[in-house]
Amino acid sequence: MRAVEAAGADVIHFDVMDGHFVPNISIGIPVLKSVRAITRLPLDAHLMIENPERYVEAFAQAGADLISVHAETCADLPAIAARIREHGVHASVAINPETSPECVLAAAEHLDMILVMSVHPGFGGQEFIPESLEKVDVIRRALDRRALKVDIEVDGGVKVDNAAEVGRAGADILVSGSGIFGQSDYARIVAEMRRRAERGG
Questions:
Q1: Which of 50, 131, 150, 162 has the fewest CB neighbours in a 10 Å radius?
Q2: Can you tell me the distance from the alpha carbon of 60 to that of 190, in angstroms, rounded to the nearest whole number?
Q3: Is-catalytic flag, 151?
Q4: Is 155 known to be catalytic?
């Protein structure tokens, strides 16, 4: 955490998996609380779990600055967004590659961020799904038409080689796991990824 903070990362993306909504199991509330104690960076808790409404308060209390829940697990997106915001946390909804953006766009005025998964959630190191770029573009255009200040985050297979495309499509926040942690020089890779994303090339 300290290494990527020193390297210039803007946020720590924290993947939570329950073995039900996705086939893998990962870290949870105690680990987020421990990370909160060692970094000043915003913590972006991505809940790839069933029944996320049961855990919103606990993740907020543990130190999350933003909580993403999945549209596929929440029938009432405005309600879960309101619940997240009640705890002073930014609200986000994530959509899987096979999910249409329409469901999340219908609730966009209640959100601070929309998270577009560019891989199938559950495992790191997957290849970026190119069709995700069109989805990001559709969401960006819809938000701009409505003059909504909602960030777009893209998560999955994001690396230096595709950062420009992701930025051009309209993403504000790029999540990269192996694209950063698989490199030896975090500062160089973070700076280059930011440069390409911001300039679109």
A1: 131
A2: 27
A3: no
A4: yes
Report the chain's mean pLDDT, rounded to a whole number: 95
Domain of residue 140 covers 2-199
Any idea what the CATH number is for the domain that residue 29 is in? 3.20.20.70
pLDDT, tens digit, for every residue of 22-69? 989 999 999 999 999 999 999 999 999 999 999 999 999 999 999 999
CA distance 61 to 58: 5
Give the closest residue to 39 by CA, choosing from 67, 59, 9: 9
Report the number of distinct structural domains present in the chain: 1
Q: Active-site residue among 15, 18, 44, 112? A: 15
Catalytic residue among 65, 137, 155, 172: 155
Q: What pLDDT band is residue 200 in, cutting at 50, 70 and 90?
A: low
Q: Which residues contact 137 (CB under 8 A, 6 or more apart)?
A: 169, 170
Element (H, E) at 161: helix 160-169
Diameter over CA atoms, the chain:
43
pTM greater than 0.90: yes
Helix (H, G, I), strand (E, B), or coil: what is residue 49?
coil
Both tokens of 36, joined, read 């909160």
What tokens does 141 get?
Answer: 């255009």
At position 65, the amino acid (one-letter code) is D
